[in-house]
Write a structure and sequence with these properties.
It contains three helices and six strands, in the order αααββββββ. The protein has 204 residues and is an alpha+beta fold.
């Protein structure tokens, strides 16, 4: 007897017959995730990897990272060179300021020497003028002269070279009795402390 194929509705595709060896399954349908042969780890598309990146920070490849690194190194080198140039200019300006401040002192020395032959007293007067000018220069640079006596001893401004008993001048214990060598400076910027003797009562 001849078997007839099952009836099918016109226009409907015929069902595919399964042929081949027994146990052979139909081909697996492909989904949006491809599988790597021999591995259970799915292959990730660029779109999938983009979702793992922090929001607002697109991924950078090696070439872009190297370019950024080279730019940063170049900027740092330019900054170092510019700082070195500016530091050199600042030092030159400070040297010029100090040298210019001492020019009047040299002028006074020249005038005193010019009149030394005709009037020896001009040497003494010139020395006094030089002293005043030198003190003014140091004070202008922020280092005024400190040679006061009777003031309280201050270890940040004074260097003790001796201890004496209070004298008839009324030097209070713990105060400066005598200035052996004057100091120069100001609060927080001491050029040289004053060498002093300090009054101290015998019982201390």
């Amino acid at each position: 007897m001849t078997e007839h194929a099952p009836d099918r509705t016109p226009g409907q595709p015929a069902a595919r017959a399964v042929t081949g060896q027994e146990g052979t399954a139909a081909p697996e349908e492909r989904t949006g995730t491809d599988r790597v042969a021999g591995s259970a780890t799915p292959t990730r598309s660029p779109e999938d990897r983009a979702e793992d990146r922090p929001e607002g920070r697109p991924g950078l490849d090696a070439a872009e990272l190297e370019d950024r690194w080279l730019r940063a190194v170049a900027d740092l080198d330019n900054l170092r060179k510019r700082y070195a140039r500016e530091l050199g200019r600042e030092r030159e300006a400070e040297r010029e300021l100090v040298a210019s401040a001492f020019l009047p002192v040299l002028d006074t020395i020249d005038r005193a020497l010019e009149h030394a032959g005709s009037d020896p007293r001009s040497i003494i007067e010139g020395i006094r003028t030089l002293r005043e000018q030198a003190l003014a220069v140091l004070a202008g640079l922020g280092y005024r002269r400190e040679d006061e006596t009777g003031v309280p001893f201050d270890p940040s401004r004074h260097e003790v070279v001796g201890v004496v008993e209070p004298n008839g001048g009324g030097a209070a214990p713990g105060s400066v009795a005598e200035v052996v060598r004057p100091g120069y400076g100001g609060p927080g910027r001491q050029l040289r402390p004053a060498s002093v003797t300090v009054a101290q009562s015998p019982g201390d």
